[in-house]
Amino acid sequence: MLTLYYTPKTCALATHITLIDAGADYTLKRIDFAKGEQRAPEFLALNPKGRVPALVTPQGILTETTALLTYIAQTHPQANLAPTEPFALARLQSFTAFLSSTLHVAHAHGPRGSRWTDDAAAQAALKAYVPTSVTAAFKLVEDTMLEGPFVMGDTYTIADPYLYTMSTWIEGDQVDATLIPRVMAHRQMMSERPSVIRALAEEA
Length: 204
Ligand SMILES: N[C@@H](CCC(=O)N[C@@H](CS)C(=O)NCC(=O)O)C(=O)O
Known about the structure:
By secondary structure, the chain is of the alpha+beta class.
């Protein structure tokens, strides 16, 4: 049994969808940001980073979406959610690492500027730049990474729920959707998948 700590409308959705895609045996624990539960002592004892997602496995707790997605794929090989051939797996990880380290970080400059500076004017500047920096990251995905119809081409992988999750933030980050039609088509396709519909219903 796996236990996913999540908060609705966050990057934890990617792991949640992947658990369903994998056919994993899982349970959910909701962390309420409005109540500051991510900084409560009980949660910090589990995940000192104070963030979601966190996944409790029989071997211990795992954090960082890229690690969680790979772990779920490799422990459920029958679901075929990640390649095993080294170059193909590295290409997949190159994509998920870009989402984690560039696109997600650009997004976080909006709601979480206090991670980088305590200067109110600097925080406002970081926030004001979000439409520019997040659009640039999505443009790179659109033009150079998304093979179509799935991220890695004809085969669905863990990259797909991860891109879908980030693409649900497009309107909030004031990204011009007309610049990224292939990303928007991928989002529409994903939103019709039973695993995505079920994950969203479980988080509602
Ligand atoms: N690099 C981490 C980022 C995790 C992260 O920043 N999660 C956000 C939600 S999308 C969070 O828990 N924020 C709570 C906070 O900053 O207080 C990952 O990819 O899992």
